[in-house]
Amino acid sequence: MKTRSAVFSTLFALALAATASAGDAPGIDPANMDPSAKPCDNFYQYADGGWLKKNPIPADYPEWGAFSELEQRNVESLHKILEKLARESSGAPAGTEEHKLGDFYAACMDEPAIEAQGIAPLQPELARIDKIATPADLQAEIARLQARGVNAVFAFGSEQDRKKSTEVIAAAFQGGLGLPDRDYYVKSDDESKSIRAKYLAHMTRMFALAGDPNTKAAAAAKTVLALETKFAEASMDRVERRDSDKTYNRMDTAALARLTPNFSWSSYFRDLGMSAAPEAVNVGQPKFFEAVSRLIPATPLEDWKTYLRWKLLVAAAPSLSSKFVDENFDFFGRTLEGTPQNLPRWKRCVAATDNAIGMALGKIWVAEYFPPESKRRADELVRNLIAALGDDLKTLPWMGEETRKAALHKLSTFDPKIGYPAKWRDYSALAIDRKTHLANVMNAADFEAHRDLAKIGKPVDRTDWEITPPTVNAYYNPLRNEIVFPAGILQPPFFDGKADDAVNYGGIGAVIGHEMTHGFDDDGRKFDAEGNLTNWWTPKDLESYQARAACVEKQFSGYVVEKDLHVNGKLVLGESIADLGGLKIAYNAFHKSLEGKPEPDKIGGFTPDQRFFLSFARIWATNDRPEFARLVTNTNEHPLDRFRAIGAPSNMADFARAFGCKAGDPMVRSEVCAIW
User: How far lies 479's CA from each of 161, 163, 532, in Å?
Assistant: First the structure.
């Protein structure tokens, strides 16, 4: 987590012949391949063409791939758990997690009640906004809405101090937009103008659904777009936001007050329910908050109230009656992602429950679906990958001894977390019932907001996880120097207990290596072993590293999504460096695991190295809609999966050797990018 040689005639024949005995090679199914393609010309099509043809995108998804398949299996297992809990929770002791899970899911599934309620559950919140009469009232309402899951103006919460990683401080970041990114507001190309026009029409319809006359609804939509545009103009772009140096600006409360003279932070902290003002706040984008301070007196209160009504409406829409759900999906699903229809209600309710009470749900899921043997084998893989990265760091020719020593120290302090947390979250303070779905959603958001705020000023809780165990994903946290692999991703096609090591190292091994490499990518390399933002590189080594990273940036900037839309190499640099390092490390770890053992046999006609690279490509098999591909390219730090499948292998001589590729073949880059 995304030939011109005669030898390939033989490979095509082997692939076809192996179809009948695909069971001999779990994880490598030749039916998923396209033997008419040449692996040295288009490895993605060769490895995944059969799967791509057999797996069109379902009508309720913007893309469909290996991640989607596994997510679907996990969602179905969570569905079984929640259906059972919804039936039995009335008999479970009140206040238990099982009772809360059953009630939350049941309230979400009670479509007749939700339809009958209409917008009524939102009326108390709308009434509060209508009563705003002073700037102080405005601030209080912004704080209240933020705590209840509404993206109003900016984001606020806790963060480990990037230069004192043992401390937890407050953090404030830009926000408040309705479109996916600030560029959608400021670009002047035809597509951006078209999306803004459609967004304006969508807001108009939503305000009308909420009861505004058509003329008032249209005026309200223009008011919101104008204010959001001002936020966007003051916002950092996504490339700037990737830079941990630029987004670290620690201030005490006095400096914060000077930065935003028209915004009372002391009142804001009280409105959030904080017992005391934090000693320090990291202000991610100071220019944004300066702009907000200027806008508070310069923008009429009625405009602010209109903006807050919109932010509340758009946040609540998925939890309201069908007319709001449908209109919300029409823009954010159909227009922005190209998805023809919404997910069925049960899938949306499973997702909502996981989002609200996910650790409690994950605890039950792990007990039923994650065997201890899977955790044991994943632990072993992680140890082998760490050893392989250590070997690599010891021998890198371009890295000097001073930097090498620091890098090895950082690696030695990696904290791998596999499967599920060592300590489960306590939901005893969360109030849930079967009466009103929207109230449950907002209560859960409020619970999480205050759980997060309570961390400020306290020791770092290193047992805390950012994602739930059934999630098909993984992550590296530079502030804790930890790599986290939830149980959800430790399943086929990423990890298969029945498959041989080549398949598992090419799949989950590359994912593990990817997350480890994030500790040394273009931004992760800025953090030391203790998670502090500090430079531990010598000038010579840093210059050498940056030249190698520039090669990766150039490679991905050359990939064409469609027409004149290219991948943004600067935006995807960290993920692409991690893919390259992860695959190389996984390959080395695989070969290290073979030491002292007999040479593995071919399976299904494929050598161990071929199975390794085929397994890597398999995890990136994905069909995507054009609208979604554009959205990902414009806003996501991860390249499209089709480019991830070929980006790293095309830089590896091991890949070329495995498939007999020659200089001049598309999968053999003339300018090889090599960092690890």
Answer: 8, 9, 7
Residues 85-105 as b or e (16 or more Cβ within 10 Å = b): bbeebeebeeeebbbbbbbbb
Assess contact for 584 and 652: CB atoms under 8 A.
yes
Superfamily, domain 120-342: Neutral endopeptidase , domain2 (1.10.1380.10)
* DSSP secondary structure letters along 452-515: HHTTTTS---TT--SS-TT-S--EEETTTTEEEEEGGGSSTTT--TTS-HHHHIIIIIHHHHHH
At 16, is the pLDDT very low, low, confident or very high (cuts 50, 70, 90)?
A: very low
Backbone angles phi, psi at 420, to 5 degrees: -160, 165
Q: What share of the chain is helix, strand, coil (3-state, %, to 5)?
A: 60, 5, 35
% of the chain with per-residue pLDDT over 70: 96
What is the spatial distance between Cα 57 and Cα 61, in angstroms, rounded to a whole number?
Answer: 6
For residue range 431-468, what is the model confidence (pLDDT) as tens digits? 999 999 999 999 999 999 999 999 999 999 999 999 99
- List, by residue number, the catalytic residues: 515, 579
Stated as kind and residue range, the H or E segment containing 383 is helix 372-395
Q: Give residue limits of the domains in the chain.
A: 120-342
Return the percentage of the chain with pLDDT > 90, whole number.
91
Of the candidates 440, 438, 147, which has an alpha carbon nearest to the alpha carbon of residue 318? 438
Confidence (pLDDT) at 90 = 60
pLDDT of residue 120: 97
Secondary element (H or E) of residue 92: none
614 with 504: CB under 8 angstroms? no
0.85 cut: is pTM over it? Answer: yes
Residue with tokens 């915004």: 263
Which has the closest alpha carbon to 610: 51, 30, 6?
Answer: 30
Q: Which residues of 7-18 are buried (b: 16+ CB within 10 A; e: fewer)?
A: ebeebbebbeeb
Query: Going by C-beta distance under 8 Å and a sequence separation of 6 or more, which residues neighbour residue 372?
Result: none
